[in-house]
Every structure is written in C-alpha cells, then in structure tokens.
C-alpha cells in the first residue's frame, strides 16, 4: 500500500472512532450554514510536524474547507506562533478539530524530541534511529515525525529486515544457527534482506562478525565495551547501540564510534507539543 493511501486509511479510522454516527453537540448547537476560521496556535517551543496530516483530516471531513499553512513542517516554533489556518463550514471544523490536533500534537512532540537527539550527536558520525515502539496503528505517522525532526528510521516492521534478537538466538541455539536460517530463508524466497544481530557481549560480537552480518547491535553495552566492540568490528559491518539511551548518555555513546543509536523513547513515551485550534465565527 502506498504511503498516501496508508495515511488516508489511518485518518479515516481515527475520524470514525471520534465522530462515529455524528458529532451530536455540534449538530445541536451550530447552524448548518455557519462559517468560521480556525487558527492552529502553538503554546510551547518545539518543532512542528504533521500539518499535511491535519490538512487531510479537515479535507476528509469536508473537502470544501480551505487550509493554509503559514509555517512548514520541520521548522522550529515558539509560543503564540500560528502554523496554519482552516476556514469554511463551522460544523465541519469543529467535528474535525480533535482528530487533527491529536495527529499534529503527537507528531510535533516526536519531531521536537528527534531534533534534540539529533543535535546531541551532530558532532559525530552516529545517526539516531527509531524503533518499533510506536503507537499501534500509527507507526507510519510516528516514523514520519521522526524523519521530520531530523533522525532516521530503523525497520518499519518484522517484514523488511532480519533482526535476530536474544530470544531468536536462544531458541535457534546460536547466532550461527539463526543467521544460517535467515540465509536459507532468503534463498528459498529469492529475496534479499539485511541481517542484524543483537549481541550482549564481545564473544557474541565475534560470532556475529564470523557470520558476515550487515549490522551488529550492541545491547546494553557500557561505553568502554562499545569502544572495544567498535575496534573489533573495525568497519566490517555497521554498528548499532541500543538500550538505556537517553539525553544524558547519548553523547558519550555516539563518541564511541557507533553508526546508529536506537532510541525507543522517540515514539513510545513522547510528550505531545501543546497546540490548540482557536476558532473565530465569521
């Protein structure tokens, strides 16, 4: 499914969840021909993201609504900034308001966090990447926000690359067995996927290296262990650091020489950016 079609489906589900059989309060209190302008007002400092989704929400409710963006996605915003305006039928605007804001606030919160993390490692080669720790059903939305904020995406799901984790290794019997299984899978399917292996110590790093994998994940290594692992790997494959990453640790992790640092907190515990829709009747 194409990205635009996925976003459309997500929006339609969100609107159905919120509006259901009808916005009874708006239908009861607002005349069907009333017009209004809604201004998207930022109330906190951050990075705006998701205006294209908010626009699509409004247009899905009422294609006649006009939506004008005044500050583009990815731009730093400050309190009292007006990032966009919507105008047209007041009923339509009120019915779409909460769904549009839910997407805009969440995406802006993720983008704001991503921008802070990206800046923290900007003096190194390391790239901050997200994880699969996203809101169920909103992975595409969450990952788009990560990109808008200046970080990168890891795999989108279980289908687009191999990531051999500790439980896979435990059941398969070894890293070698698990990697061989992945290569046999690709041979049978006649498809190519990257192979990443999660490691817990230097012995596992050595075994992963011997199997010529594409990426080695250093899971919960301390910085000294990371440096040793990076020296051992010596550019033979990419290196990802994972586990216990936050803003107080990420700088020292990046300086060990890893290529990627995965941060689940970008999406799983994001603080929404405070944005409201100020509506004026016309």
UniProtKB/TrEMBL annotation:
Entries under Pfam families matching the protein: QRPTase_C, QRPTase_N
Domain of life assignment: Bacteria
Database matches in CDD domains: QPRTase (cd01572)
One Gene Ontology biological process: quinolinate catabolic process
Gene Ontology molecular function terms on file: nicotinate-nucleotide diphosphorylase (carboxylating) activity
Keyword Transferase attributed: yes
CC per GO annotation: cytoplasm
Quinolinate phosphoribosyl transferase C-terminal domain boundaries: 110-278
Catalytic activity: nicotinate beta-D-ribonucleotide + CO2 + diphosphate = quinolinate + 5-phospho-alpha-D-ribose 1-diphosphate + 2 H(+)
Record function comment: Involved in the catabolism of quinolinic acid (QA).
Oligomeric form and interacting partners: Hexamer formed by 3 homodimers.
Name the record gives this protein: Probable nicotinate-nucleotide pyrophosphorylase [carboxylating]
UniProt organism field: Ignavibacterium album
């Amino acid at each position: 499914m194409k990205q635009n079609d996925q976003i459309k489906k997500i929006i339609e589900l969100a609107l159905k969840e919120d509006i259901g059989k009808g916005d009874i309060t708006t239908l009861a209190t607002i005349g069907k021909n009333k017009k209004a302008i809604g201004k998207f007002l930022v109330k906190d400092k951050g990075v705006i993201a998701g205006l294209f989704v908010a626009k699509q929400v409004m247009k899905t409710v009422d294609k006649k609504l006009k939506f004008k963006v005044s500050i583009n996605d990815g731009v730093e915003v400050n309190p009292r900034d007006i990032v966009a305006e919507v105008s047209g039928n007041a009923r339509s605007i009120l019915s779409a308001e909460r769904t549009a804001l839910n997407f805009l606030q969440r995406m802006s919160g993720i983008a704001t966090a991503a921008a802070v993390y990206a800046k923290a490692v900007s003096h190194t080669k390391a790239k901050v990447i997200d994880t699969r720790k996203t809101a169920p059903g909103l992975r595409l939305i969450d990952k788009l926000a990560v990109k808008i904020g200046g970080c990168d995406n890891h795999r989108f799901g279980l289908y687009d690359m191999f990531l051999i984790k500790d439980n896979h290794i435990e059941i398969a019997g070894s890293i070698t067995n698990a990697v061989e299984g992945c290569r046999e899978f690709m041979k049978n399917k006649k498809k190519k996927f990257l192979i990443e292996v999660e490691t817990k110590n230097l012995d596992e790093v050595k075994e992963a290296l011997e199997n010529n994998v594409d990426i080695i994940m250093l899971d919960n290594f301390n910085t000294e262990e990371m440096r040793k692992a990076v020296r051992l790997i010596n550019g033979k494959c990419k290196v990802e650091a994972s586990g216990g990453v936050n803003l107080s640790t990420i700088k020292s992790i990046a300086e060990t020489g890893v290529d990627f640092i995965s941060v689940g907190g970008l999406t799983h515990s994001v603080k929404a950016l405070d944005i409201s829709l100020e509506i004026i009747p016309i």
